């Protein structure tokens, strides 16, 4: 029973492919939470797209936290206190935006309450990923204030096009010196401020809660979960995880469609 913080990626890890939380996963997490384990959702999503699941899991204690924007924000669910809030300024993005625009790829800017689709860059499929809890607006980039701040921007495209973009970005370090980028799914490349990651955010939270990596279990399936796996004593890859994550894991459980989170936790904690 040693681990005291269970950190869970959401999409394709905790949630099923239809973006729902199963009764089996919810039941075991609520039981562990009642036994004073910290249950922390670690996601690329903004708060409005996470809040219904926090309610479903009864995460409302004064020491309950959520990690958003791939580690850009660490937020107390009860008090709204933020331990961390890393943001971009639009005025600093011209070079990287121009590079992406020249490749004829779309960009969506993700703020805490709204997503801006940049009209000049073309319509992406991101609007179909964010659901109805977050406002989505297509705008010209010249209509956005240069003082606009935001936690991340994304390129949502085919896997092949994102592979090509990543290869170019890895060879243009000058343009990306203040930017980190990672895949949260094969068709979504996410950009956050430099040194932002789920693992870095978990370090901040562990310190706040007077815990260490020995107290940590993490679950994930994609490249943006790798920093958590490098930090945790116990790291659990889903059966549907990419090979990179499976290779980094201490354990592999069944898929998100088969309630892999509940399967592992019920065995680990013998409940």
Automatic annotation (TrEMBL):
The answer to whether the entry has keyword GTP-binding is no
Keyword annotations from UniProtKB, A to Z? Hydrolase
The answer, when asked if Disulfide bond is one of the entry's keywords, is: no
Question: InterPro entries this protein is in?
Answer: Cof, HAD-like_sf, HAD-SF_hydro_IIB, HAD_sf
> What is the protein name given in its UniProt record?
Cof-type HAD-IIB family hydrolase
Give the Enzyme Commission number.
3.1.3.-
Q: What is the lineage of its organism?
A: Bacteria, Bacillati, Bacillota, Bacilli, Lactobacillales
- Broadest EC class assigned to this enzyme: hydrolase
Question: GO molecular function terms here?
Answer: hydrolase activity
Q: Which CDD domains match?
A: HAD_Pase
PANTHER family per the UniProt record, alphabetical: HAD SUPERFAMILY HYDROLASE-LIKE, TYPE 3, PHOSPHOSERINE PHOSPHATASE
